[in-house]
Amino acid sequence: MDLYSGYPYWLIKNPLYNHIHELRESINTDTVIIGSGITGALVAHELCSHGLPCVIVDKRALATGSTAASTAQLQYEIDVPLSELVKKLQVTTAVTAYQASLQAISDVEQVFLKTGLDADFERKSSLYLASNNKALQELEEELAIRQRYGLPVTGLGATALQQRYGISRPGALYNDAAAQIDTYKATTGLLHYHHGQGGLQLFPYTEVTRHQATRDGYELLTGNGKIIKCRNLVIASGYEAGTFLPEKVMDLVSTYALVTEPVPPSAIWPEASLIWETARPYFYLRTTGDNRIMMGGEDIPFRNEQLRDLLLKRKTNRLLKTFRQLFPGIDIKCEMTWCGTFSSTKDGLPFIGCYPGLERMYFALGYGGNGITFSMIAAQLICKHLLGQTDDRAAVFGFERR
């Protein structure tokens, strides 16, 4: 299945990282990671940084799955607001999930500071808009619970929002703890870095068609008949991980995005904040380093690729209409559009760790709108487990809560 269609901005902005060949001989290794997107890259980074060599295999060219279609916003807010999440989970679990997501933004930043890689990481503020008066009441409840547990947040009323941003909405939640990134550049940078250091082997165009547990780990069969033997297996292949799971743990969603032609720097709203709304389906936007405006949303349940793709023009036109209602004074022209498929869970949290009964198979499934921060958490938890260390976050994001 194609994970996206159209012209994702990142693949046009960056050179394609495609000089590595498929697996051509059977190998025996310690840890195999299936999936070369941002999740697999962060897992490999953590393992290699702690002296644990690993192999990444992917049936596609490196980093050209859903990572290439990401709008790459890093926010500590989870798809399910904290005020709702505490009703679905224990309060301590819900709060820990939010605190972990907040910390993960700084941890992602540290990855690129320590490696010296340029991933176009930028710290940004975030603005969560109340779409109507009913939503404003919900935001007030959300403001109170975030403040109670020390999460960064400030409430803005209609007047302040209008004066500061020129936005006509009943109110908003503001924080200065968000960030944005070039996910494709980040992923290929990490893969290239650790491949060059010698701790990581890369095999794109290598599909795992069968896996079998052995006494010492797993034996994998590839599409071209090669065998990979490993002690540990990490599944970082997003919703395609269903092949390895005994049950369905996520729902598929189609999402739409576009990027505009560059606009004058003076046209960008204050702080170039990440902006999103309470209204569903989602609408969110960010800027790029060359002063383009990237926006996305209009999510619908995934049915098939054909329907998803047929709706691309209609959905992106709706995104443009919403933007123009929000910022009528900014003249924009659409340049690239794309659509993709991602996964979501009932509580908005990822699934990280071993599925009960599947020893030595570790899942790094950063489902939902926080895929990058969840991937950072998954990388840390899996690495710690392989090192024999414990982490309280493991219980928050594990399969036991399903």
Detailed description of the structure:
- It comes from Taibaiella chishuiensis.
- Residues 30-383 form the FAD dependent oxidoreductase domain.
- This is Glycine/D-amino acid oxidase-like deaminating enzyme.
- Helix content is 32%, strand content 28%.
- The chain has 402 residues and is an alpha+beta fold.
- It has two domains: 16-70 and 184-249 and 348-401, FAD/NAD(P)-binding domain (3-Layer(bba) Sandwich), CATH 3.50.50.60; 122-180 and 251-344, D-Amino Acid Oxidase, subunit A, domain 2 (D-Amino Acid Oxidase, Chain A, domain 2, 2-Layer Sandwich), CATH 3.30.9.
- Strand 10 (217-222) and strand 11 form a beta hairpin.
- Helix 2 (38-49) packs parallel to helix 7 and helix 3 packs across helix 4 (91-115).
- The mean pLDDT is 94.
Quick summary of this structure?
With 402 residues, the protein is an alpha+beta fold. Helix content is 32%, strand content 28%.
Could you tell me the CATH topology label of the largest domain: FAD/NAD(P)-binding domain
Helix content: 25-40%
| Integer tally of domains | 2
**What's the average pLDDT?**
94
Distance between the termini: 26 Å
Radius of gyration: 21 Å
Looking at the overall shape, the CATH architecture of the largest domain is: 3-Layer(bba) Sandwich
Number of strands: 18
Largest sheet, strands/sense/barrel: 10 strands, mixed
Structural class: alpha+beta
Overall shape = globular
| CATH class placement of the largest domain | Alpha Beta
Elements, N to C (H/E) = EHEHEEHHEHEHEHEEEEEEEEHHEEEHH
Number of helices, counting only DSSP H or I runs of 4 residues or more:
11
Beta fraction: 25-35%
CATH superfamily of the largest domain: FAD/NAD(P)-binding domain
- Poorly predicted ranges: none
